[in-house]
Design brief:
221 residues, alpha+beta, BirA Bifunctional Protein, domain 2, seven-stranded mixed beta sheet, three-stranded mixed beta sheet, globular
Length: 221
Amino acid sequence: MLNNGRKPPVPLPRLSEVDWRVDIEAIPYEAALQAMQAHVEAMTVGRAPERVWLLGHPSLYTGGTSADPAELLDPHRFPVYRSGRGGRFTYHGPGQRVAYVMLDLNKRGRDVRAFVSSLQDWLIAALAQLGVAGERHDDQIGVFVDDAKIASVGIRVRRWVTFHGVSLNVDPDLEHFSGIVPCGLNTPVTSLAALGGTTETDQVDAALRAAFDEVFARDDS
């Protein structure tokens, strides 16, 4: 069929498809938070797709809704930001890969516990691809290698749309965690580098992408 020389219209992507945004340069925390919140607001009215955002931040401590001031041991070491996510104090900084996960639980089952469990499964599957065996600990959120924590989980849900997400210690300065009680746990922290795992950012991102597709795959038909 002739179209009189006009280009055919480009089909719009389905909103059910997950958009991936990847930033290599560190993004200031407040700027990232504002961008994430704006995307979530657009999602709640059907104007944006689900998104996973891989990025990093300059060094800072963030406190979740359950953060205890007594667990901020060195409040003058790095900037401290009170976040709206769940959880307690954590550290973000160079050598860490953060993933903000903006998914619509209206389409995926309104089960926050199951979502958090899937985030842990995702991290464990990604770590396996990077040469490290991660595991859960009973009654603790995050992922561990033996007694040391390698990844944290802290989320928020608004109108059944999720945001915030996870952080994976790739090759950070682990001493920076000493300014807080990480996630309220008196346990050591570790990293892929400390355990001899793969630390190249592109390979870490590829593992996170592949593992996400395995864990969160669903029928969009």
